[in-house]
Amino acid sequence: MFKRIIALICVFLLALAVFSGCDNAKNSDLKVGFVYIGAIGDGGYTYAHNQGRLALEKELGVQTMYVENVSEDLATCKDAIVGLIDQGCTIIYVNSFGHGDAAFECAAEYPDVYFGHATGYLLADNFSNYMGRVYEPRYLSGIAAGLNTVSGKIGYVAAMPIAEVVRGINAFTLGVRSVNPDATVEVIWTNTWYDTTLEKSAAQELINKGCDVIAQHCDSTAPQIAAEEAGVKSIGYNASMLDAAPKAYLTAPLFHWGTFYIDDVKSIIDGKYQSRAYWEGLKSGMVSLDTLSANNVDGTAEKVEEAKKQIEDGSLYIFTGPLKDNAGSEKVAAGVAMTDAELQAFDWFVEGVIGTVPTGN
Amino acid sequence: MEMLNTIGLFLQSTVQMGTILLFATLGGILCERVGHLNLGIEGMMLMGAVIGFYTGYHTGNGWVAFAAAAVAGGFGALIYAVITVTFLGNQTVTGLVLSIFGTGFSSFVGLPLSTVTMPQSAMAPFRAFKVPLLSKIPVLGPAIFEQSVYVHIGLILAIVMYVYLNKTRFGLNLRAIGENPASADASGINITLYKYIHIIIGGMLCGLGGAYLTLVYVPLWQDGITSGMGWIAVTLIIFSTWNPLKAIISAYLFGALRSIGFKLQNIQIPKIGGGTFILNSQLLNMLPYIMTIVVLVIIALRKKREEQPPGWLSLPYYREDR
What we know:
The structure holds two protein chains of two kinds. Chain A has two domains: 2-132 and 257-284, 3-Layer(aba) Sandwich (Rossmann fold), CATH 3.40.50.2300; 135-252 and 290-354, Response regulator (Rossmann fold, 3-Layer(aba) Sandwich), CATH 3.40.50. In chain A, helix 5 crosses helix 6. Chain A is α/β, with parallel strands linked by helices. Chain A contains eleven helices and 16 strands. Chain A has helices spanning 2-29, 45-60, 74-86, 100-109, 135-148, 163-179, 196-208, 222-230, 257-269, 300-312, 340-343; strands at residues 31-35, 63-67, 91-94, 114-118, 127-132, 153-158, 184-189, 213-217, 233-235, 249-251, 253-255, 277-280, 287-289, 323-324, 330-332, 353-354. Chain B has one domain (2-313): ABC transporter involved in vitamin B12 uptake, BtuC. Chain B has helices spanning 2-33, 41-59, 62-86, 91-110, 120-123, 140-144, 149-167, 169-179, 181-186, 191-217, 229-239, 244-264, 281-285, 287-302; strands at 129-130, 146-147, 268-270, 276-278.
């Protein structure tokens, strides 16, 4: 009898172990595939996504795989996605705007696979899009720039003239002018996301014009190095660039893509998945401002912290009228808040920006 | 004075950008003069760039990194030389493959390097310095005499190569091989040796061009850091009509064209009949390539003998076919 009870307990424990093991096994069986526009070694955009992937692996114990340097043409991108699905991935994330159409077609062909598209706008039952409200930390970085400039001239190396970049420049400028009302932000377009030499050359040009803080919305750290060499200050992007420019670097708006990846995959594991347009800001942890470096003037931290609190508690929405464009005409009336749709179609610069948004005319 | 200062600063950044192209163009010229079309410049540049950075990062010595970059570029060229000289492989395809190989090789080696920075000691030998007195010359001073020693090495190499090609027996022999290897062979020149040596030295120069980026211009490694400049160098070889001295001018000119767009972007240009307009930045970015097409057409039309490509360029030489 005694032996039987022992045996029974053993069996029970074993079964329990199997079941509890099952729970973990379920997670580690789950394969998540990532399609990257760049290389994980780019030190910028794709690097940040890859950090998100690693965070996801660590947090949820799922398997992940990725494909690098996937260009945006339909055939190549579909090949990459189908390849990942063939290898057992049931969740696919694509990290470039131009991957959207291919992923969307695949979503229709593979209804059992979940898709996520960074920086996109498309939606389907198994297809979400996700992005960070990086303009919020950009506004904060503008405050830092506005407090640190002496000449009142700030330079901004910008990649492509699309709404996201324009929105970032505007948020940055509003931040600058919230603490330094006469300062200007001069923009140079490189018309490429990633070209180290061009980005450095553009930053040099801005410095030659008298700018003493250089900000950037492009993927390499070259503008930081130009600032370091010239002895001016700089604002980075995507990842901390303190190592690249120890004397110039002030701070940088950062992405934490892992926040979304973990949230999304968790909802799939828990069976609570709902496709959505995920566009979250400082409060969610999706974006943040990097720690202010010791290169900042005294008082920067207080001002930044104050604005950060206001944004997080909702008392400050930076795109609230009155807003004028940089030709002087009023675009948003006093007290009116711009809608998300308007933010996604930004094609004009706010007052204080020197430069134009190319329109093709 | 203010104006001169602005021009000086502009030329300074122009020369820096041109130096990358100058090394690569010189390497390409040497290779093509010996009759071999090497489209692998981009690949050899990337190999030099990543190995230069890797060595500089680990040894903390700039000159060791410099040498390592040259060896890496030379190694890429050696692969090319074995395939095209010894095995008479198709030069176009081999060159393209070398470019693809070099890109992959650099991504692989560079993967752990993308988040590190170069130690100061490795950058120290290449810091820009002012040549006494000469740097005071307006415009030319900041453009040439307030630069890294790397820039000066490029200039000196171009002059040395010009003298070598045109004033020495070795240069004559090598040009003869490029024009007609059969005749050169008949006159007792060791064709295979010449080809190997000059293709490899050409590759070393390309490697140094890439390393200028990672050791001097932006001392860091990022994937695909040359962003297609190796391909511009391929056109610059034609642009400079296989002449090392003209390579200086054309490389700097392209350096200027690549950055002049930024200069003009926010300038209001008066319109005829009142008002102003701003030049479209995408249009400005097309300038270097439009220039290339124009020059290609001009060269084709002028038909000057000394401006034509080497006669045997890209053709394999079968010794037994004589």
